[in-house]
Specification:
Helix content: 10-25%
Strand order of the largest sheet: 2-3-4-1-5-8-7-6
CATH architecture: Roll
Bound molecules: zinc ion
Number of helices: 3
CATH topology: 2,3-Dihydroxybiphenyl 1,2-Dioxygenase, domain 1
Shape: globular
CATH class: Alpha Beta
Mean pLDDT: 96
Largest sheet: 8 strands, mixed
Strand content: 35-45%
Radius of gyration: 15 Å
Number of strands: 8
CATH superfamily: 2,3-Dihydroxybiphenyl 1,2-Dioxygenase, domain 1
Structural class: alpha+beta
Amino acid sequence: MVKKVDHIGVAVKDLEETLKFYRDVLGLELQGTEIVKDQRVKVAFLPVGDTEMELLESTDKEGPIYKYIEKKGEGIQHIAYRVDDIEKAIKEMKEKGIKMIDEKPRYGAGGAKIAFLHPKSTHGVLVELCERD
Ligand code: ZN
């Protein structure tokens, strides 16, 4: 069902500061940044092979990334898997007894259709399903 790791989401306090590591030290290329209002984040994309790093900085103190960092500090926040058909994937997850955070897909960065699985159903990892063209 899952095609590949679409991206790895990292919660960061300061995007510019973080780019000093990913771009300047690791040598990854910054493909672009985008504000996803729905999730109150500014996202930076840095492709690595056929996957990418997604750096997430909260745009305000109500955002999930702000709250995540307050609780756990900076770090890997979610793993996203690419699927062909997200509606079908969500249905299949539910049939398999997985608790979904998103029962319906919503739009994430880059116009992707995304849905999160509840970490209680995934051994502690926030898993995102991601469909994109
Ligand atoms: Zn993501």
